[in-house]
Amino acid sequence: xxxxxxxxxxxxxxxxxxVQISSKFDFTNIKCNSFDxxxxxxxxxYIKPINRSYKYVAVKVKLFKTPITKVNIGIFKxxxxxxxxxxxxxxxxxxxxxxxxxxxxxxxxxxxxxxMKPFSNMNHSCPFDHDLIVDKLPIQFVNxxxxxxxxxxxxxxxxxxxxxxxxxxxxxxxxxxxxS
Length: 180
Known about the structure:
Keywords: Signal. The chain is an alpha+beta fold.
């Protein structure tokens, strides 16, 4: 009976001990392309490393014409044995103005929009008659989104947005990252 109590106490101690397994997200690259320079152009698009543990993304696009009507948002993952990236979890297209009028209507788009909302001036309803800015989106914020809010498996990923006006793709932004 004494050995059984000892084993139960050890088992309880092991099962109640806190083992923290944590993932870490890191930006690896960003690419911004304007397909119609008369419609829009990127003033800047970069990842800025401040030190070993802090870096951020900054994007500013100048809109020469409006409106942006649709946005396609997708997350892609690099899988072993394949060239390039494959769709992972989400790849949706939303009517930008309708979505911004009621962001709770589409939970998936709302989650993907939450990656940049606090660091962007794209947080009001249409029309957008000004430059679009994502300013100093920190790696720590994205890390929380992909490891705590909705845990994502380790790997290499691309968060891609394609911006449409009048049915024509006008611009694309791809943010590359790794979860380890």
